[in-house]
């Protein structure tokens, strides 16, 4: 899986005193996951998956490099889509390690 994903916003937001039309999500680090202390999703006893929007919003801010108040400006569809994109990083392994070449 790619380490970064560009995402075109349905509606612009303000971040760092600029209008933002696209964000690029990067894979969170283990240190960031430990600092947030939550996954961006929850699995209930029936194994249904749902988003933890509070945790997802924190990941969006960190992984898109935008301030938390900018996350609050996202269109609802952008918030939902970005939250699922963040969750996707947790569902698949990072790119496979290259095999050592025989020499």
Task: Give an overview in words.
The protein is of the alpha+beta class and 103 residues long. The chain has one domain (4-91). Helix content is 38%, strand content 26%. The protein has four helices and four strands. The strands form two sheets. A two-stranded antiparallel ribbon has the order 1-2. A two-stranded antiparallel sheet has the order 3-4. A hairpin with a 5-residue loop joins strand 3 and strand 4. Helix 2 crosses helix 4. The longest helix has 16 residues, at 76-91. It is globular, with a radius of gyration of 15 Å. 18% of the residues are buried. The model has no long low-confidence stretch (mean pLDDT 91).
Task: Write a concise synopsis of the structure shown.
The chain is α+β, with helices and mostly antiparallel strands and 103 residues long. The protein is 38% helix and 26% strand.
Our estimate of the beta-strand percent is: 25-35%
**What is the number of beta strands?**
4
Poorly predicted regions: none
Count of helical stretches: 4
């Amino acid at each position: 899986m790619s380490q970064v994903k560009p995402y075109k916003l349905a509606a612009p937001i303000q971040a760092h005193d600029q209008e933002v039309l696209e964000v690029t999500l990067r894979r969170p680090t283990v240190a960031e996951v430990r600092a947030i202390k939550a996954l961006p999703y929850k699995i209930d006893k029936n194994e249904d998956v749902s988003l933890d929007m509070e945790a997802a919003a924190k990941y969006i801010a960190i992984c898109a490099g935008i301030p938390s108040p900018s996350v609050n400006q996202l269109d609802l569809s952008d918030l939902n889509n970005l939250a699922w994109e963040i969750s996707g990083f947790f569902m698949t392994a990072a790119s496979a390690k290259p095999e050592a070449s025989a020499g």
